[in-house]
Amino acid sequence: MRTGLIVPTCLSWLILAMLLGSCATASRPSVETGRGLRPPTPAVEQELQEILDKHRIVTAGLGILMDGKLAWALYHGDASPGVPANAATRFNVASITKTVTAETALRLIDAGELDLDEPLGAYWVDPDIAGDPRLQSLTARTVLTHTTGFPNWRFFRSDGKLAFARAPGEAYGYSGEGFEYLARAISTKLHRPFPQVVRELVFEPAGMQHAMMEIRRNGLRDVAIPIDEEGTAHRMWCRPNGWCREEGSYSAADDMLVTVPDYARFLAMVARDESGKAGTPLARGSALVDTGDDAVVDCEDSATIDCPRAQGYGLGFQVIEYDAMRILGHGGNDWAEVALGYIQLPARDGLIVFLNAPNRRGLEAMPELVELLDPDSPFPGQYRRWLARERAQATR
């Protein structure tokens, strides 16, 4: 008696195995498909809100760019007590500040007012390294590629002084100090305060009307107030230990305030300019320096997204190169904020996630949010590795 069961032949088994193999390959995330970045459905928006609630994110701003325009945004929580977050809410984006400093330097170089490889010591010498012959190798290029040889911050050193750990250009070493040095050199050379140069070359051309690099507390409005683990609110640009940035000062490496729409405008401007720079020395979309253990994609992790053909730091941005696409991005991570922004080229689609919350909560929420908004994103694995390291340190 015949039944509905079909007994496969050897050829049938081979075909079945090939089909299953192709299905397995297709189901693996692949940035080459470029299918991930689209405005989410109402159901996905609800999932995003649930993730933000689960991790007790105080304030959030999320945005998706399509073809260089902000196509969708979502705001969550209160910026300050009784003031819901909205498109005008300014977030502290920590190290994402470096992308604006980098863009300022690149525009000066493009205009012939700065050279990528001239010694910065011709304009500014930090007293801590005066007399060190390695100073002559410190350039805008070494700063933008994080190869200055400086520590991240001098206060991490036991003597609290700036010093070279290695010669500039020798190897990668992430450094906020390098960006501060570059800003001092630019300001001295141009005889203008660095925040003024940023406004003229980046904020105003991009239409970033609400971005702030200077520390100006008087009349400050529409900001996501930092909150510590105990739920205590702190003054802007202050830390729970009582340390505050001085009024009127600035940082070229940290603590910029910016809205989601304004940073979307910045990414769109970078993408437009990059289209004319491809293949030139000022191209941002080339990975110039291997970042080693700081790489975004861990290619030894078989569960991760496809391994890129190249990744590392370019001129001011983390760069991830695939055959059909490049990603330019940067993150920001501090005691009360976790932020991420990136744009894909040539499509000019991008993602922005600004979280105002105690750091651990932000690190926990970030990969879940990014995976939901961009299934092809290479960044979630990096955030999970950071979170694992933090947890391991906390248990020591």
In the CATH scheme, what's the topology name?
A: Beta-lactamase
- Report the structural category: alpha+beta
Q: From the alpha-carbon coordinates, what is the Rg to the nearest angstrom?
A: 23 Å
What's the structural domain tally? 1
Helix content: 25-40%
Main beta-sheet annotation:
8 strands, antiparallel
- What low-confidence regions span 5 or more consecutive residues with pLDDT below 50? 1-29
Tally the helices: what do you get? Answer: 9
What string, H for helix and E for strand, traces the elements in order? Answer: HHEEEEHHHHEHEEEEEHH
CATH architectural label: 3-Layer(aba) Sandwich
Give the tally of β-strands: 10
Instruction: Give the name of the CATH superfamily.
Output: DD-peptidase/beta-lactamase superfamily
Shape: globular
Strand content: 5-15%
Q: Can you tell me about this structure?
A:
By secondary structure, the protein is an alpha+beta fold. It has 9 helices and 10 strands. The strands form 2 sheets. The chain has an 8-stranded antiparallel beta sheet with strand order 3-2-1-10-9-8-7-6, sandwiched between helices. Helix 3 (97-110) crosses helix 5, helix 3 (97-110) packs across helix 6 (194-206) and helix 8 (359-373) runs antiparallel to helix 9 (380-394). The longest helix is centred in the N-terminal third of the chain and has 18 residues, at 10-27.
